[in-house]
Amino acid sequence: MSAPTRVFIARLAGIAVFDPAGDQVGRVRDVVVALRIGPRPPRVLGLVVEVQPRRPVFLPITRVTTIEADQVVFNGRLNMRRFQQRESETLAIAELLDRTVRLADTGEQVAVVDVAMEPTRSRDWLLTKAAVRRGGGRGLRRRRGEILVVDWDAITGLSGVEYGQGAAGLIAAFEQLKAPDLANIIHELPEKRRAEVAAALDDERLADILEELPEDEQIEILGKLDSDRAADVLDAMDPDDAADLLGELPADQRERLLTLMEPEEAAPVRRLLTYADNTAGGLMTTDPVIVPPDATVAEALAHIRNPDLDPALAAQVYVCRPPTDTPTGRYLGTVHFQRLLREPPSELVSGLVDTELAPLRPALSLEAVATFLATYNLVAAAVVDDAGHLLGAVSIDDVLDHLLPEDWRETVLEAIADESTDPEEEALRRSAHARQEP
């Protein structure tokens, strides 16, 4: 194996994994280790590699041929069976970072910020070092946050379960991930660890991640936050996602959180909760791109360039008379972004509206909405009430979320995955605790 003699594991998070032909197959999400009784260093079993579509699989360390700063290369053999963590296994990034341990010689409490693995002469890998942060207690002359790199046998206290464990190190390791990718990692964590990560995330980041998680995990995480924090996170969520989440809660809890939310954030959520789930009204977002009829093409394009805007909603703008907050004044029509790109920047959008495409009604069923989008090759459509006011817009991603089964990603991949037992992988994982190191 071509590798540096020591690899700090947090730095592996997110780096690309390649097969021998140079094709990228996924990215490193964690390292699986087996903790052992006493001071003996843990044995590294392998890597958790995320392959598309967001599926964690196990790559035995014995199949890794190269570890570099920006890539991992393996021998080409990869079992696509979904990784399932066993009781005897520990995830180095998800579970060891941020743990509170003690220095064996002084008994001082320190926090683990990284761990390092090194190869042995027998081609195994062991955790041999830990980078720890001293707290800089009162009366000490050293500066707060001092980092020490110590031998593995110089720390104690990793064998038990730590409640209230921090999550700063884990979050920092995956700081560059997009919300759906980080949500997938959080989805794989134990319930205790999910709660700790949620507590450490800021409101905006947690809101983005909650929108990507299954409803049962959204409810679980929200239930572990105090009411004021939960309301702040709901404020930061898109109104349709917040309404979907609140709709799953008991009525008294839902009303308490709505009361704690900012009034301007709670108002559209309350409106959405009045519609049945599988209708255009229940599916729509109340924040599409809306412009008045005297807006120019340049102004409309400036709105859809917003990097935080969902791509489906950026595909068109809705022209309405003031007020332009939903429910708006009279809805005049839709302008597709392709049309905006073909017109002079000074042209008024009122002259470009597509008036032949009828808007959706809020009571329209999910199946009818899907048929409408498919018939006219649209990625989003306006939802208008009987008085001609724009209420919101339904996007194709919301429709697909409700049409596809919850486990559709797994179902698709199971059809092509080799679910047979991998003898080499099984032997490595079964012998993790039984094998004695030289």
Automatic annotation (TrEMBL):
Protein's UniProt keywords contain DNA damage: no
Domain CBS span(s) in chain numbering: 284-350, 353-411
SMART domains: MgtE_N (SM00924)
Region Disordered, residue ranges: 417-438
Lineage: superkingdom: Bacteria
GO molecular function: magnesium ion transmembrane transporter activity
Pfam family, one: MgtE_N
Keyword tRNA-binding: no
Basic and acidic residues bias: start-end ranges: 426-438
GO cellular component terms attached to this protein's record: membrane
Keywords on record: CBS domain
PANTHER family (UniProt xref): MAGNESIUM TRANSPORTER MGTE
The protein's name: Mg/Co/Ni transporter MgtE (Contains CBS domain)
Organism, scientific name: Thermomonospora echinospora
